[in-house]
């Protein structure tokens, strides 16, 4: 475990806590005064600004600097001062930091902080392993895109590139909790090793299939079972990591002796690509949690139906709406299976529209800001190939695409997608406009009345939605999702990456974003769409919604956070970068 990794993770944790105003940080103040001149002479810790808050262990002085993105103040390092009983202590590291915030909390909250400390330790260790993988893969990563002749090879390469970059906001996203070091090397996209799936034979009445099984499925004899099992059983795929911990709930479910069908991991880890049929990916439960200990990567059976319903909705909208036509394609996600309500015995098949992708390079937004072996961003390589090195031409195309699609879905059809950086996939193709590939939309939000009013033929798909949380009855839920996913995660994070690399200046880029947003709103208003709420919530508020991922995902119980969905727990504390102009 390296000191640099621990320092890096600690600073990310501190900044997430400041951003989400966790515990006593909700009452913090900022001063320019040094704590005491005596302290300055005894410790090597200096700052122009100090964020001050009081805990049961004393008064904390955290060195901070002014910031404009997602929070007004951020820590300058992994150290701070504590004044307790007229004594000064200099502390550093995530263990001390979490101990400060957990002190005097109730027993349940202290247990959550303790568990998160273990997650932080995993994140430090996994960061070191990630850097090891990157060094070992440098030769492969350095090969140009042209060295990968097939679209699926370029997609898998892009997913691997993305795996080396941390989540922008959740501080310990590097931790794949539940995987040890060897598991990571065998099954994570950072290492990109193939492996074979395990299989269960399930009596047919116990397994619900939403569509016929694909031809890539193994025979019973291949997995070491009598071939006549095909009359009475189906084969259900299981990830090797889940296999080790799986408890079979019924005597009609049998473990097959042999593994079968080589797969390769994608960015999500639990979704893998069939080596023999690369246009087909399969999502399977995994004994792992990411983005918080509560985010266990199982599969809720209702998501099979909700994901398919949204793929139908979005495909139909793209066909009927002349503005959106040609902007995106949706993967076919109608096939899957589940054993009753078990979250460990389920799968979802995702088929990419291969016939339309032969010349495409598919890139998840999560990969754009990844650093390549030559020191440049992956985005710079893509811009060189598809935009002749004109970064601003690409940015114009990107802003236009993302805002046109997601504002129109929200304001015309009442749909907000949780298409995060992993699921928002860009379609680069020479001679064609930038496009999107959509997938995995099982946790969106929809205003049914608006959608049905705009497209009555979509009513049956809306009625098929099973998760009651998907249907909302007010505009705010859509605005929060658009803001935190499309605006902050998929657009602003990329702008910040460009600025941090010195490729552009921050204020002109945010001014450009505001202008593109205003153009789309004006166009919608000209078509008779009511844009009042969107204009007010996006352009006029001093602070924007923000996901409190660390609070809901790890540090607070559901009773404390009040979050019905831990991935949709919002605050209203992000400085509005859309109010940033060159004049400021």
Oligomer: single chain
| CATH fold title of the domain at 360-579 | Transferase(Phosphotransferase), domain 1
Number of helices: 17
Measured as a percent range, the helix fraction is 25-40%
Tell me the number of strands. Answer: 23
Mean pLDDT: 93
Structural class: alpha+beta
General shape: globular
Low-confidence stretches: none
Kindly report how far apart the N and C termini lie: 43 Å
Radius of gyration: 25 Å
Name of the top-level CATH class of the domain at 360-579: Mainly Alpha
Beta-strand content = 15-25%
Main sheet summary:
9 strands, antiparallel
CATH architecture of the domain at 360-579, by name, is: Orthogonal Bundle
Characteristic key phrases:
alpha+beta, Transferase(Phosphotransferase), domain 1, 9-stranded antiparallel beta sheet, 6-stranded antiparallel beta sheet, 17 helices, 38% helix, globular
Topology:
Blueprint: H1 3-20, E1 29-31, H2 37-42, E2 49-55, E3 58-66, E4 73-75, E5 79-84, E6 87-92, H3 94-102, H4 107-141, H5 151-163, H6 181-187, E7 195-203, E8 208-209, E9 233-238, H7 240-243, E10 253-255, E11 260-265, E12 271-274, E13 280-283, H8 302-320, E14 328-330, E15 336-338, E16 346-351, E17 361-364, H9 378-386, H10 391-413, E18 415-416, E19 425-428, E20 435-438, E21 445-446, H11 448-454, H12 459-463, H13 475-500, H14 506-526, H15 532-540, E22 543-547, H16 549-555, H17 558-561, E23 570-575
Parallel strand pairs: 14-20
Antiparallel strand pairs: 1-2, 2-3, 3-4, 3-5, 5-6, 7-9, 7-10, 7-11, 8-15, 11-12, 12-13, 13-16, 15-16, 17-19, 18-21, 19-20, 22-23
Helix pairs in contact: 1-4, 3-4, 10-13, 10-14
């Amino acid at each position: 475990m390296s000191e640099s990794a621990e320092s890096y993770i600690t600073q990310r944790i501190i900044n997430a806590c400041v951003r989400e105003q966790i515990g006593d940080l909700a009452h913090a103040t900022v001063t320019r005064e040094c704590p005491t001149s005596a302290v300055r002479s005894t410790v090597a810790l200096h700052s122009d600004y100090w964020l001050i808050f009081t805990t049961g262990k004393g008064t904390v002085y955290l060195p901070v600097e002014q910031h404009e993105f997602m929070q007004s103040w951020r820590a300058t390092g992994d150290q701070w001062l504590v004044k307790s009983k007229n004594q000064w202590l200099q502390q550093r590291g995530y263990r001390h930091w979490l101990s400060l915030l957990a002190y005097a909390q109730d027993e349940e909250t202290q247990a959550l902080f303790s568990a998160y400390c273990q997650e932080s330790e995993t994140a430090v260790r996994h960061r070191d392993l990630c850097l090891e993988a990157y060094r070992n893969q440098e030769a492969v990563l350095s090969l140009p895109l042209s060295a990968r002749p097939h679209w699926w090879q370029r997609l898998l390469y892009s997913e691997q590139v993305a795996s080396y970059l941390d989540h922008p906001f959740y501080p310990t996203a590097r931790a794949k909790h539940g995987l040890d070091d060897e598991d990571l090397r065998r099954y994570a996209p950072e290492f990109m090793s193939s492996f074979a799936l395990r299989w269960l034979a399930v009596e047919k009445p116990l397994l619900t299939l939403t569509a016929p099984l694909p031809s890539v499925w193994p025979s019973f004899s291949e997995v070491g079972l009598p071939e006549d099992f095909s009359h009475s059983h189906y084969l259900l795929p299981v990830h090797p990591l889940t296999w080790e911990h799986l408890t079979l709930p019924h005597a009609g479910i049998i473990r097959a002796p042999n593994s079968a069908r080589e797969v390769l991991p994608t960015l999500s880890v639990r979704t893998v690509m069939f080596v023999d049929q690369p246009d087909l990916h399969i999502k399977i439960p995994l004994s792992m949690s990411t983005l918080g200990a509560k985010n266990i990567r199982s599969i809720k059976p209702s998501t099979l139906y909700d994901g398919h319903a949204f793929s139908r909705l979005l495909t139909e909208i793209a066909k009927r709406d002349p503005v959106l036509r040609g902007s995106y394609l949706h993967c076919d996600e109608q096939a899957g299976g589940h054993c009753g309500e078990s979250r460990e015995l389920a799968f979802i098949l995702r088929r990419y529209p291969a016939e339309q992708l032969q010349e495409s390079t598919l890139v998840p937004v999560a990969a754009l800001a990844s650093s390549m072996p030559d020191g440049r961003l992956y985005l710079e390589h893509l811009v060189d190939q598809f935009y002749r090195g004109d970064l601003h031409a690409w940015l114009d195309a990107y802003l236009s695409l993302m805002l046109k699609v997601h504002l129109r879905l929200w304001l015309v059809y009442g749909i907000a997608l949780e298409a995060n950086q992993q699921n928002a996939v860009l379609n680069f193709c020479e001679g064609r406009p930038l496009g999107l590939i959509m997938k995995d939309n099982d946790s969106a939000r929809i205003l049914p009345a608006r959608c049905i009013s705009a497209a009555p033929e979509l009513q049956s798909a809306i009625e098929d939605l099973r998760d009651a949380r998907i249907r909302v009855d007010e505009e705010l839920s859509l605005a929060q999702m658009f803001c935190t996913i499309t605006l902050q995660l998929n657009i602003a994070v990329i702008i910040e990456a460009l600025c941090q690399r010195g490729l552009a200046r921050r204020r002109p880029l945010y001014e450009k974003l505001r202008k593109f947003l205003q153009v789309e709103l004006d166009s919608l208003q000209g078509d008779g769409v009511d844009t009042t709420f969107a204009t007010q919530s996006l352009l006029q508020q001093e602070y924007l919604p923000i996901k409190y991922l660390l609070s809901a995902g790890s540090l607070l119980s559901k009773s404390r956070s009040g979050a019905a969905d831990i991935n949709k727990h919002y605050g209203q504390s992000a400085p509005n970068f859309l109010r940033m102009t060159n004049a400021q």
